[in-house]
Amino acid sequence: MNLLFSVIFLTGVFQVSSEKLQVSIYYEALCSDSVQFITKQLQPAYKLIGSNLEVDLVPYGKASQTQENGKWFFRCQHGPPECHGNILQACGLATDKSQAQKVDFVYCVMNQWDPSSDDAIEKCSGKLGLTSDAIFQCANSGEGEILLAKNGVQTHAVTPKITFIPTIVFNGVYSSANQNGAFSNFLKTACDQFHDKPKGCNA
């Protein structure tokens, strides 16, 4: 009986330690609020509880898209340079790299003077273990447009409709309280979503 209890108890501990929180972040390359959130909130928190997060970074923001003769066209809140930057980041995020590498990559890009620039990619592609040429090839081949269009579909599917960028969604469910909390204190708000908080929440 004691042995059975021990097995059940240890199984429970294992399940708690492997608890994951899904976090979707809808942002755009030239949004100052996106820069602020990713560099001041997401990255520091990720260092503490990243192993307990499943992060889905979605560069698109308040954009629109149309398709004509098989080609995608985008209109972004901060103009064509932002569309270009969103495509570049979408290409980087589509690579078969670890979540930690992708978060570091986006942090690096968004921390540059111009996050939409080719120069930002040249400086930050190493975070993915890639050369910038691999990302530029994706962006210039039409693949990048397809990736951004998919991000658009995902962004427009969020309910209620996204009105603020960045929008942060936990476990697929939007909450205005969580949105406001995460934007100002991501670590605390993310930690509040766990049944049993990861050790990093106590930092």
UniProtKB/TrEMBL annotation:
Q: Which UniProt keywords apply?
A: Glycoprotein, Secreted, Signal
| InterPro entries (alphabetical) | Interferon-induced_GILT
Where in the cell does this protein reside?
Secreted
| Signal sequence segment | 1-18
Highest taxon listed in the record's lineage: Eukaryota
Name the Gene3D superfamilies for this protein. Answer: Glutaredoxin
GO MF terms held by the record: oxidoreductase activity, acting on a sulfur group of donors, disulfide as acceptor
Q: Just give the chief location class.
A: secreted
Pfam families xref list: GILT
User: What cellular component GO annotations does this protein have?
Assistant: extracellular region
Q: Does the keyword Secreted apply?
A: yes
Which family is this sequence assigned to?
A: Belongs to the GILT family.
Q: Which protein, by its recorded name, is this?
A: Gamma-interferon-inducible lysosomal thiol reductase
Q: Tell me the organism.
A: Photinus pyralis
The taxonomy runs:
Eukaryota, Metazoa, Ecdysozoa, Arthropoda, Hexapoda
